[in-house]
Amino acid sequence: MGYDIDRFVGYVNEGLLCSICRDVLEDPLQAPCEHAFCTACIHGWLVHHSNCPEDRQMIDVSLLRPLYRYMRNDLNRLQLHCKNREYGCEMVCSLESLDRHERECEYNQIPCSNAGCTVQVERRNLDGHLAVCEYRSRECPNGCGYIILSAEDTQHNCVAELRTELELLRSEMICRVEEAKHEMESRLDSQRRHMVQKESVLQNEIEELKSQMSRLMSDVRSLMAAERQHRQELEQAELEKREL
To answer: Which Gene Ontology MF annotations are present (predicted)?
Structure first.
């Protein structure tokens, strides 16, 4: 759908009207036959038809093109009233700058930012509404530190709220202690397994050293026996030498 022609100030060229809704073009597209349409209008038309609604020439979505530049310029220069005119906005601006103005318009109807509130107010009145909104939140005036909604004032009980919070904190503390306990036990088990593995490795190394020592002692005894044999042979040779 296009822009309501009654919003515009002054004359609007016929060529800037949608051939389907007959309002001023919004997000326009042009067919090869040069008839222009709002994007939403022509897409909706082509769901059930395959021709131009003006001259019945065959068209397809793939043949639609943006509006000629000079026509876009003429369209953007048109002056029109803000959509919030009925609420009191007197702004008249070009179509090109309309979106920017309407996003920031003080007369825009916007929802209350408080959770649970369904009221919509003008942007300029939002602060006043928030000050009295029954869904506004504030800190308990009795000093418990609890954030309450105005609608819950009569149900709020500082002692009950603090007791509930204390129970939650106790439960959270118990959970954290249990988690820390499990983590510590896991670490101890891991260290214990590591120590057992280390002990096994050291025991194997000790056995290997004992085996090497045993072989070394055997070699030493063999060398000592060979040395005694060699000494005896020398003494025998010396005796034989003296006899000669």
So the answer is: ligase activity; zinc ion binding
Q: Which tokens sit at 153?
A: 């004032």
H/E element, 207:
helix 158-243
The 10 Å Cβ neighbour count of residue 227 is: 10
Give the CA count within 13 Å in the CB-facing half-sphere of 63.
15
Task: For residue 119, give the DSSP letter.
Answer: -
pTM: 0.52
CATH number of this structure's domain 5-104, picked from the four choices 3.30.40.10, 3.40.109.10, 3.40.50.2300, 1.20.120.530: 3.30.40.10
- Cα 191 off chain centre by: 39
- 168-194 pLDDT, tens per residue? 889 999 999 999 999 999 899 889 888
Distance in Å from the first CA to the final CA of the chain: 142
